[in-house]
Amino acid sequence: MTAPRAWLIWTIGVASYLVAVTQRTSFGVVGLEATERFNASASAISFFTVLQLLVYAGLQIPVGVLVDRFGSRLMIASGAVLMGAGQLQLAFAENIPGGVLGRVLVGAGDAMTFISVIRLIPLWFAPARVPLITQLTGMSGQLGQLISVIPFALVLHSLGWSPAFLMLAGMSGMAAVLVVVLLKDMPPGTVRAESVQGLRATGASLKRAWSQPGTRLGMWSHFTIQFSGTVFAMTWGYPFLISGQGLEAGVVAMLMALFVGTGIVVGPFIGRFVSRHPLRRSTMVLLIAAATAAAWATVLLIPGRAPLWMLVGLVIVMAIGGPGSMIGFDFARTFNPAHRLGTATGIVNVGGFCAALICIFLVGLVLDLLYSTGYSNGVLYGLEPFRIALSAQFLLLGFGAFAILASRRKVRRQMAAQGVTVPPLLKTLAARRRARVESRRAGNGPGSKPR
Predict the structure, then answer these.
(1) Residue 332 CB coordination number (10 Å)
(2) Are 87 and 61 a contacting pair, CB within 8 Å?
(3) Which CATH number fits domain 3-184+203-438: 1.20.1250.20, 3.30.830.10, 3.40.1190.10, 2.60.120.10?
């Protein structure tokens, strides 16, 4: 295996994932246009994304099993074809059923992409580099949000609905060709592990992945800190900022760009933290969850519209949740063997997108209820209705934090049984300080006491 070849394979995988993220988030930009094109209510528009995410989440575990069996190349190429077909369908859809069919195809193709790209990393890179490369993968792919916010939105507003979605279909076609021609599943000379055969053996592998507490800890970590940014980017962020907060479209585009840019900048730092402090991963997740809850509470409780600097802070905190949620995949990698990694990664990836689809649906439902009862004063996407509807996030954040704590206790009991102890953070820091002091007094330089 040569380093240049590994980076080439990774670049192709990331490019495919970038295209998938563009397809995934494109509907978040067209919420207002879709309401007019399909003559739809808020809950109907949210249903587009809910069903897309439902398909995505529902396929994660089957896709994980399939990628373990057939490899990443076939799955990524198939996903690109499905997404292209979905955007082609949406380009000419003029009613809700036609639009829903397009988003279902996009969700199915998107479901095949990320897990398949993540599975390439341990095969092409050394284990010590996997956490950082995983973070770089997730954050580089998120550049697709910028494509949906800027070039796609520009084409949409200048040329119209159909040309904009045809552009997205063309991007998926190019990704499919690139993968088929250049992508390889594993380095030359690597022996492929025996694939699982039969439904019974597949079910047993799935059961073993789920029964591993580390897999469930990864899933709940992903559930808790990934969904808020997904809800914001895919559906309700654009209407909230435009109609609720009264911002201009250009300012909203800048905030969305900040969302992506922050994740790209923060991702490598989280990757290094995970590599150096593997026993503090869940603590990092809980801190990000607390920061997300505090940021949303501040914006939603302040009288009147929030100042721009406060919205900037909210966007930055939500953006940190993206790379933070990648810690869940590191839990899957740590606690599962390589031949079960796709299955375990699929289980983890279900978490955040299940939370996102629940939240998107709840927000749309509450907005419609407030509108129908007259609370909204005839404004569907008003600030006051959004205050109530977006508060649904706190329920999911609280539930996720509780599930993380419960799963972490089981993981720590398992680790203790294997001879690995996880002392409280303050005790650990104090021990390290004492070790450094004693080392300096002895004249031996920095201590290297194992953890």
Answers:
(1) 29
(2) no
(3) 1.20.1250.20
Which is nearest to 40 in space by CA: 300, 242, 235? 235
Is the CA virtual torsion 120, 26, 360, 66 positive or negative? negative
> Degrees (nearest 5) of the Cα angle 367, 372, 378?
80
**C-alpha span between 264 and 251 (Å, rounded):** 20
Backbone angles phi, psi at 422, to 5 degrees: -125, 90
Residue the block writes with tokens 């996407």: 381
The whole-angstrom distance between residue 425's C-alpha and the CA centroid of its chain comes to 28
- Mean pLDDT to the nearest integer, 310-325: 93
How buried is 33 (Cβ within 10 angstroms: 0-12 exposed, 13-18 middle, 19+ buried)?
middle
CA distance 223 to 46: 19
Nearest to 145 by CA among 300, 51, 252, 248: 252
Q: What is the mean pLDDT of residues 221-227?
A: 94
- Pair of tokens at residue 156: 């949409």
Task: Please choose, from the candidates 339, 317, 320, 342, the residue with its C-alpha nearest in 3D space to the C-alpha of residue 329.
Answer: 342
Alpha-carbon distance values, 352 to 50, 56, 185, 356, 359 (Å): 13, 11, 27, 6, 11
Quote the CA–CA distance of 279 and 422 in Å, as a whole number: 7
Nearest to 199 by CA among 58, 69, 345: 69
**Closest by CA position to 167, among listed 150, 181, 191:** 150
Structural domain spans, the chain: 3-184+203-438
Kindly report, residue by residue over 198-213, the tens digit of the pLDDT. Answer: 556 667 777 888 888 8
Q: What is the pLDDT of residues 230-279, one digit of tens each?
A: 889 877 888 899 989 999 888 988 898 898 888 888 888 888 888 788 77
Angle CA 266–345–277, to nearest 5: 45
Residue-by-residue DSSP string for 191-218: PPPPPP-SHHHHHHHHHHHHHSHHHHHH
Answer whether 248's CB lies under 8 Å from 398's CB.
Answer: no
Alpha helices in 71-198 (DSSP H): 72-92, 96-111, 114-124, 130-141, 143-149, 151-159, 161-182
